Amino acid sequence: MAQSVSAFQAAYITIEVLIALVSVPGNILVIWAVKKNQALQDATFSFIVSLAVADVAVGTLVIPLAIVINIGPQMEFYTCLMVACPVLILTESSILALLAIAVDRYLRVKIPLRYKSVVTPRRAAAAIACCWIISLLVGLTPMFGWNNLNKMRRTQEANASHTAFVIGCKFENVISMEYMVYFNFFVWVLPPLLLMLIIYLEVFNLIRKQLDKKVSSNSSDPQKYYGKELKIAKSLALVLFLFALSWLPLHTLNCITLFCPSCQTPSILTYIAIFLTHGNSAMNPIVYAFRIQKFRTTFLQIWHQYICCETDKNTNNLDNTELGNWQLERVIPDVPYLDLQKSL
């Protein structure tokens, strides 16, 4: 039996390490691309960088701590609680970054003429800071008292254990399932996901309306702009869909655990749900590479220039073209919208 458990843990650790090895370099590449390419340096991509930072932290911090929790070493209660909390912080940070991205895309199509005056770099930075502060407060709530300390103390007293409060460090031993379901899921996960769904539906509706208007009036500039916005919105909506697909199974299992204590959830389902949540941190760079051309060209440039140490004239030309387009957008950002004032 011990060998079977050990083999299972080894397989779990191997999969987690593989996820980290994909997630960390991929998201560092995203951050590097935004820093390198000025065409990617706007509010939307600032929020994407915040999301990438959270995903890097999943690979470098959460996955190693998850491996520790899986092994279940003996440690003091609050030490174990500190090991369990980072995943809560980073999950909330990712959700709020996705919400900020959705709001940003909505503003780009709802108020294109005023967008650059409303969404300034300073306001974007303030929004990112607020997202992280809220994430810290939500994720550290168990440290403030909403945890299983009293429950574990009663168990320890019943078992007449040690004087020092030491437990086997498991997530469910320290984190209250009421906190996970009522507070974390029902307040800070599900409502933002539903709100983002509504926002993206409205974004697609606005873009479709504008495209129909511009097609009928034979105006190519607004059509080009809204066509580009539609592509980016689809890509970012895909990121949201993958996040929901990755996280909802684990929250569903938490609900089953809370509302049906007698129900036995197969451990393999729990592990699959955990792998999905951690694996989500590796998905976004792949989506960006395949769906957003600015990211794809910058990734290729970084690969050739810094990884392969090649100096390619075509790569340099790509960079100059991207920079030229970005500078043109900065100089005349509202050309496509000259005839939208009546319709907005």
Automatic annotation (TrEMBL):
SMART domains in the record: 7TM_GPCR_Srsx
GO biological process: one example: response to purine-containing compound
Domain of life: Eukaryota
Keywords: Cell membrane, Disulfide bond, G-protein coupled receptor, Glycoprotein, Lipoprotein, Membrane, Palmitate, Receptor, Transducer, Transmembrane, Transmembrane helix
Subcellular location: Cell membrane
Keyword set includes Nucleotidyltransferase: no
Cellular component annotations (GO), alphabetically ordered: cilium; dendritic spine; plasma membrane
Family: Belongs to the G-protein coupled receptor 1 family.
PANTHER family on file: ADENOSINE RECEPTOR A1, OLFACTORY RECEPTOR AND ADENOSINE RECEPTOR
Protein's name according to its UniProt entry: Adenosine receptor A1
Species of the source: Chrysemys picta bellii (Western painted turtle)
